[in-house]
Design brief:
The chain is mainly alpha-helical and about 300 residues long. The chain has one domain: Na+/H+ antiporter like fold, CATH 1.20.1530. It has 15 helices and no strands. It is globular, with a radius of gyration of 19 Å.
């Protein structure tokens, strides 16, 4: 019942986008325009606020960071390499790797950890969110930017990649936020409220955009989406569980939280990147939808196992 209560609003938002597009309440470019709004305004605000307001005591838990980083990056890199051998396209392979490793820690992970572990579950959920939306997301953006360069000279290509990254709000905003946080200065109340309001629109707008996209007749086959769903819901938590319980021997709360957070379905991040870079989004959209459906079973199983 806990899982259903957390996941039901996600399905409702996707359904709203789907129905509104099918009934022409949203236009043909609605999915793309909503996504641009999220990428250029909402998500940067959320990333800046998250990194600017996070305290060292909240995020400095080295063993948990090691467990979640190692499992998440392992899934991302291995999936990327396997898909690159098949597709021969680094940008597409990067999106597949992101789809297999990008857990929906923000919208599902934080409320789920609070429901299961109480207030103590907030810290591991916050750390996992920062790892996913800052480190993993930025790594994927770098891979895509590298893939898009056609310069023959390595130096010219590296320069273009660096310039593109410096212009990318998804990379710049968490860096600026971290700099603000290190300075020790508090965010002015008006600025904090502005960032909170704008950041709060990230998830609903992204999910409505996804629903509107799914309402279109999709050209891509979506081949390989089930494999990515299996990696996200089974392989990712399996690796995390081994590292958390048997390698790093995390305290029970942190080990259980790591397992639960890695068993989450794919978030909207890969879809946002696919739309932003005008890549084929049929695979990532299916992965998000199918993994969210599948997580009704896997998350319930995880909650049962961790007691």
């Amino acid at each position: 019942m806990i899982v259903i209560n957390v996941l039901l609003p996600i399905f409702a938002l996707i359904l709203i986008g789907y129905v509104c597009r099918k009934t022409l309440r949203l236009g043909a470019t609605a999915a793309s325009e909503l996504n641009r709004f999220v990428v250029w305004l909402c998500l940067p605000a959320l990333l800046f606020k998250s990194t600017a307001t996070a305290t060292l005591s909240q995020i400095w838990h080295p063993q948990f960071i090691a467990v979640y980083c190692l499992s998440t990056l392992a899934v991302f890199i291995v999936t990327l390499l396997i898909r690159f051998r098949v597709k021969k396209n680094l940008a597409e392979a990067s999106l597949d790797g992101l789809s297999a490793s990008y857990a929906n820690t923000g919208y599902i992970g934080i409320p789920l950890c609070l429901l299961v572990a109480g207030p103590a579950g907030l810290e591991p959920a916050l750390i996992a969110t920062l790892i996913v939306v800052c480190l993993l997301f930025s790594l994927s953006v770098i891979c895509i930017e590298v893939a898009l360069q056609t310069e023959s000279s390595w130096h010219q290509a590296a320069r273009k990649v660096l310039i593109s990254l410096c212009k990318n709000p998804l990379v710049v905003s968490p860096i600026l936020g971290a700099c603000w946080g290190v300075s020790g200065a508090e965010l002015p109340a008006a600025l904090l409220q502005f960032l909170t309001m704008l950041g709060a629109a990230t998830t609903p707008c992204a999910l409505v955009s996804l629903g509107a996209f799914l309402a279109h007749r999709q050209k891509g086959s979506g081949q390989g989406s089930m494999q990515l769903v299996g990696i996200k819901l089974i392989v990712h938590p399996l690796i995390t569980g081994i590292l958390a319980f048997y390698v790093f021997h995390l305290p029970p709360l942190w080990a259980k939280s790591a397992l639960l957070l890695s068993a989450l379905p794919t978030g909207t991040g890969p879809f946002m990147l696919a739309e932003y870079y005008r890549r084929e989004a049929s695979v990532v959209s299916r992965v998000i939808l199918l993994s969210t459906l599948g997580s009704l079973i896997t998350l319930s199983l995880c909650i049962y196992l961790i007691g």
